[in-house]
Model the fold of this input.
Amino acid sequence: LRLVYTTTAVQRKNVGASGPEKYTEAFIKKQIEEFNLGKRHLANMMGEDPETFTQEHIDRAIAYLFPSGLFDKQARPMMKHPTEIFPEQRKIQWGEDGRPFHFLFYTGKQSYYSLMHETYEKLLNIQKHQDQLTVQDLPLQKGKRNLAGSRWLTKIELEEMLLEKLSDDDYLRFIQLLQKLVALPCADIEEEYIQKFSKEVPVQLQKAVIEPLQYDEQGVAFSTGEGKRKTARATAVVYDNGSGKITVNGIDILHYFPVLQDREQLLFPFQFLGRIGKHDMVCTVSGGGRSAQAGAIRLASAKALRSFVTEKEVEFMRQAGLLTVDPRVKERKKPGQEGPRRKFTWKKR
Amino acid sequence: DDKLLTEPLNHPDFFSVKELFTLKDLFDARVHLGHKKGCRHRFMEPYIFGCRLDQDIIDLDQTMQHLQLALNFTAHVAYRGGIILFVSRRRQFCHLVESTARACGEYAHTRYWQGGLLTNANIQFGHGVRLPDLLIFLSTLNNVFEPHVAIRDAAKMSIPTVGVVDTNCNPCLITYPIPGNDDSPAAVELYCKLFRMTIIRAKDKRRQSEAIEELR
Done:
């Protein structure tokens, strides 16, 4: 056997294989002390008061003292509190004698399984309560939960709550168990527990505020609305006690919109509500083409009409699509193609 | 300290485990009922008393002896502060087993068994984990009626096992098998009660002995 000459480099331990560094509590504490000391030194250097030296001041001072032209903000020199720099690590799960703290530690997903265990216990509680009521021949209360106004927590929110990674199957199982729990007649007992996992969904419509009617000098009620379509922007003022006259940019619609289709678009909101001869309208519009301007004025007039009309009719208008902004805009041309979708002619040879 | 550990080993039944159950209790909890003749496992034949209308009946005298040995062993492990892990893959009794484990202050695993739990523990849980010192199976089969992976893994890691084996189970790799019914709720509740009482008894005795030693 020949003795092979090896360098000292081979004898060094493979540092990378040990895994991510463990940040002990003592280490983090030391880092925090050093950070606070460094903050005071920096304040002295910059000539500021050490007591009122906030994180913003630190960032500006570092940017002044160490100017860097690097693009990535994370790569530039920074001085932040250690809790923001060192990622939070899972503390050791067992005591000095080696016994784990949680009774489901050996399953691997202790928080998730303990949650399932608790939820199942609530289910059993409710069933026991139900049995007691049936024994006493009392009627079972059917609590009406507002299903439309609430939603369950999403998978990401649940992961944040449990501080553990979940799989899609696990999440689905948990939601199914909750739904089963809620479906039982006497679920009111555990209402508090269920509310921990449900969130209110504010109805989108309530966000849209309908402005009240305004009155001009003669006492005639009017209301304004704004609308847009493609590049056209329009504002419409709808007056009450009118005769169906519509003016666009100071010009009558018959002259401004020679095409029938555009005038139909303008009249659609009034026709839908059955108020064709009852309102006057004065609008201003700019940008876009013929059809876009007509669509913009339609949206503006529909928005203005909301103030004249009951909430139920507003809901009907919304469902008819009169109050939605049309999101379609011109699609951009892509390189290597002739237009947004059209490709160049393919030649076989 | 040495005396604390060697003292219980001198007595055959230091924790008087025999008083916890009688043959009548086992019979009332329907522990003697096995599966049908077609499901019988070859290695369970020594433990079977007989067959009535195609259903196997387990010999309760043998069950008594095995149960006494198993309970005595768990009591000794709990006395020495060992980690006990209750394993069962039956959905019916999952909640019961977890509550029993919690009541004893021990651990339970009634969910899907990830492959490397015992054999790859250092990487799965982190460095320096302490593995369980005893595995108690309330049912040795998993949901597909095959032997639970934990039996084989415990044998690989030299961890003793106590398990309730039914007539369709393989008692080979289990250190302290307990031939008995694992399907009836009454039987499983009886087992849970017995294990819970032994473990609590053993822990209480340990605390008493330590207190007496400190007083000296």
Observations:
- Residues 110-135 of chain A form the longest helix (26 residues).
- Chain A touches chain B at residues 90, 92-94, 97-100, 103-109, 113, 117, 120-121, 124 (CB under 8 Å).
- Residues 214-320 of chain A form a domain with the Ribosomal Protein S5; domain 2 fold (CATH 3.30.230.10).
- Chain A has three domains: 25-85, 105-200, 214-320.
